[in-house]
Design a protein that fits this description.
single chain, 379 residues, 7-stranded antiparallel sheet, 3-stranded antiparallel sheet, 12% strand, globular
Length: 379
């Protein structure tokens, strides 16, 4: 991750139109979007950045709040309060799963793996029933999570990864749906074996470099622009976590994992979403994106499921029925609506200084709803 480019103007993101500083209807929309964020800051999160794009052009943007507000879990105010901005960097949490998915699909395009072949073909010893498709649709029967940091407190990332891969299947393979970070950790490791490189290198070479996403990747270096997350006294650094992945399992695996660990700006994430909306760009073939966003027939979820993506997830799409995307535990969301030509990004740090704040679901849906309002009003 380098110094980056202006958020929202990179490859695939299109141009800005009345985004936050314009006049007329566009400015009005930007004002409403900013008002939505201000109503949530700092009650839901201390920092929030949102972008709404139509046909790749940003029609509204807003950045509100402070990247660091609190010094501890008790809510003591931090000495320094850097403001959130369009180029602020946030921990994407589970939106990272979409980057892992893109890598796997690109490897499948090259014939390095098959979505319906046994995972054991690349990771010997795994249950022969498991396939990459099972992992990407959360139908592998694996448990939701595993605190490998607590199980192996003195081990290194490699030993912990080996133990993660030995996680036993506890539910039926093939469904019903059971959301599993463990499965996506396995998917990330599968990508490494099939791709012949570490996952962070694969994400960089196959996704972020191709899209020009200078501020997207694991283990961010531009610390002054990174939003703080949770107070974790077990970590070495003082204060709330900042610049390290929030997720405990990803942190225990060295900061790079298939389910979490990617950081990005709103503009970079918009560019990634636009690549998916328009058929894959330089990252994937249109046929791969079509399979990614196709309803895979998963039973037992509150939404339809593609490969790595959720379709019509009521927790993020609001009124954009049929849109696909994903959310992240830190308070992030990406919503892509090809039919309405919309891409909506919301980045927050709703786990700062502690998790459990009310309102992030409502904020996600309200921002998505604002995009639909723009279309309906012809702004």
């Amino acid at each position: 991750m380098g110094s980056g480019t202006d958020a929202g103007t990179g490859s695939g993101a299109g141009s800005e139109r009345d985004a936050g500083t314009g006049s007329g209807a566009g400015a009005g929309m930007a004002g409403r979007l900013e008002a939505l964020l201000r109503a949530a800051v700092p009650r839901v999160c201390s920092a929030a950045v949102a972008l709404i794009a139509v046909d790749g052009s940003v029609v509204a943007s807003a950045a509100v709040g402070e990247l660091v507000r609190y010094a501890d879990a008790e809510g003591t105010l931090a000495a320094d309060h850097p403001p959130a901005d369009r180029d602020s960097i946030f921990d994407l949490a589970s939106i990272s799963k979409l980057f892992t998915t893109a890598v796997l699909l690109s490897l499948a395009e090259e014939g390095r793996l098959g979505l319906d072949e046994p995972v054991a073909s690349w990771i010997p010893g795994r249950d022969p029933r498991l396939t990459p498709r099972h992992l990407l649709t959360h139908t592998a029967g694996l448990p939701a999570t595993r605190r490998i940091d607590l199980e192996l407190p003195d081990a290194g990332p490699a030993e912990r990864m080996a133990e993660m891969l030995e996680t036993p299947i506890v539910h039926p393979v093939g469904g019903p749906y059971l959301y599993s970070d463990v499965g996506m950790v396995m998917a990330g490791r599968l990508a490494e074996v099939a791709g012949g490189a570490p996952l962070d290198v694969l994400v960089r070479s196959r996704v972020t470099d191709r899209l020009g996403l200078a501020d997207t990747g694991y283990r961010p270096q531009a610390l002054p622009r990174v939003a703080a997350t949770e107070w974790k006294p077990e970590r070495a650094g003082p204060g709330c976590v900042r610049g390290e992945v929030h997720d405990e399992t990803a942190y225990a695996l060295g900061g790079v994992a298939g389910h979490a660990g990617v950081f990005a700006t709103a503009g970079d994430l918009l560019t990634f979403g636009e690549a998916l909306r328009t058929g894959g760009g330089p990252v994937l073939r249109p046929s791969s994106v079509a399979e990614m966003v196709r309803d895979q027939g998963v039973e037992g979820a509150a939404f339809r499921h593609g490969l790595g993506v959720r379709i019509g997830d009521p927790g993020i799409v609001g009124p954009l029925a049929g849109a696909f995307g994903h959310s992240g535990f830190t308070g992030t969301s990406l919503v892509v609506d090809p039919v309405r030509r919309l891409t909506v990004v919301l980045l927050t740090n709703a786990v700062h200084p502690v998790r459990g704040h009310d309102g992030i679901r409502d904020l996600r849906c309200a921002v998505a709803g604002e995009a639909l309002t723009h279309l309906n009003n012809g702004e």
